[in-house]
Amino acid sequence: MTKRKGIVVLFALLMVFLAACSGGNTSSNPGTDTQSNNSSDTETNKSDDQSGASVELRVAWWGGQARHDMMNALFDKFEEKFPHITVVREFGTENQFVEKVTTQAAGGNAPDVVQTSSFFLNDFVARNIHMELDALVDSGDIDLSDFIVHDVDGGKVDDKLYMISLGHNITGIIHNTEMFNKAGVPLPQNGWTWDEYIQTLKDLQKSLGSEAWASEDEGGT
């Protein structure tokens, strides 16, 4: 078996997606962390304005301050291009995110667009939170021509598309060089097999004893 495996601390970093979400009304939901950025009505960029009617679009995501800053900058640019659309921004911590969205959806007040993850995609689809996106792709309203097939397929359930990739991460390997040196065990190299990974952990554990575990258990992810 030649699949690579990280050691000592293994972070399974999942792909994060931006997903269209079926919702009720478009008003801001009380009790959520919401930042609204109201764009003034202007005559600029009217070539991009299909109707001219004012639209309020609720978008929800989780993350730290760096992600908040990035998303706010992105939606500021979006509002500049589409001045008739106001993006109401709802964000908070990942721990509270799923419960918040499922509660909103149950009350018919889910955001219009919501960040999601492969961790809970199937559950969201089963709860009828996510909208199928295939028709929008077929019509050309969503352009996936620059996406690789693996990123597109990652957003599907039962061969139907519900998520569009916002970006993706890779499995990370973090090791404690001091512990390796103390144990006299060679440092990790690219190209490890599962058998080599397991043997390395056994060699490390002999040196560590009860001081620490040779690897974190990320089997659940």
UniProtKB/TrEMBL annotation:
It comes from the Bacteria. InterPro entries: Bact_solute-bd_prot1 (IPR050490), SBP (IPR006059). Keywords: Signal. Residues 1-22 form the signal peptide. Gene3D superfamilies: Periplasmic binding protein-like II (3.40.190.10). Residues 25-52 are annotated as: Disordered. Pfam families: SBP_bac_1. Residues 25-42 have a biased composition (Polar residues). This is ABC transporter substrate-binding protein. It comes from Paenibacillus cisolokensis.
